[in-house]
Amino acid sequence: MSKKRFRENVRNQLQMKDKERVKEETEAVQNRLFAHDVWQKSSVIALTYAVGDEFPTKQIIEQAFNEGKRIAMPKCVPETKDMRFYEIEQLDQLEPSFFGLMEPDPDQCKKIVRDQIDLLIVPGLVYDRKGYRIGFGGGYFDRFLAGYRSFDTVSLAYREQLAAERFPNEPHDQRVNFVITADEVIECQ
Ligand SMILES: Nc1ncnc2c1ncn2[C@@H]1O[C@H](COP(=O)(O)OP(=O)(O)OP(=O)(O)O)[C@@H](O)[C@H]1O
Ligand SMILES: [Mg+2]
User: Fold this and answer.
1) pLDDT by residue (tens digit) across 19-75?
2) Which of 20, 79, 148, 184 ranks highest by number of CB atoms within 10 Å?
3) Could you report the per-residue pLDDT of 150-186, keeping only the tens digit for each?
4) Is tRNA processing set as a keyword in this record (predicted)?
């Protein structure tokens, strides 16, 4: 099956998923994340603002603020497929951007460099137990993760997003360190 088919399959499954189950799983995944060393030891957490059927991040951002952690969010540069990170101190520093994304407003936010990030929560659609992932197809995260990694990487997944079978990966695809589901924290490497 192609990456495209995997993306479509999972999107359909997530759309059909019972809302009550989504809520339960979301809480279970969040609790595993917040209890994990990789979260507790990190003071600068980088993540995206999730939209649609993506694993939600708003509560994660709020929890980080409550624990005195700092939040960095990427702004995509479509011309170069590069991401620039900015610190946000409140959600109203986000503004609508390409493809209905919410991104930090550079005029209101401080720049964050790669080295300052302790934990990157990597978005995506499907993952395997080795930490390979199928994202949204832009290659933004593969490019960013291919650089020097001074931070840990975690992806958060509903049960439907953990592939039972092997899926296509290409030489440029980068792995994450942990995949967290409602059932377990998978150490990928
Ligand atoms: N390090 C890289 N250098 C150059 N091109 C890259 C690199 N990483 C990925 N790409 C390109 O990006 C495109 C999209 O890659 P892919 O289909 O793996 O996206 P994805 O993993 O779903 O996206 P994302 O990483 O944003 O979640 C591919 O055409 C690939 O060649
Ligand atoms: Mg990829």
Assistant:
1) 999 999 999 999 999 999 999 999 999 999 999 989 999 999 999 999 999 999 999
2) 184
3) 999 999 999 999 998 888 899 999 999 999 999 999 9
4) no
**Atom of ligand 1 minimally distant from the CA of 136:** 22
Q: Dig out the tokens for 57 from the structure.
A: 């991040």
Query: Is any atom of ligand 1 closer than 6 Å to the C-beta of 172?
Result: yes
Number of domains in the chain: 1
Distance, CA 90 to ligand 2 centroid (Å)? 30
Q: Let me know: does 124 contact 144? Beta carbons within 8 Å.
A: no
CATH at 105? 3.40.50.10420
28 CA distance to ligand 2 centroid (A)?
26
| Cα–Cα distance measured from residue 7 to residue 50, given in angstroms and rounded to the nearest whole number | 16
- The reply to whether ligand 1 has any atom less than 6 angstroms from the CB of 127 is no
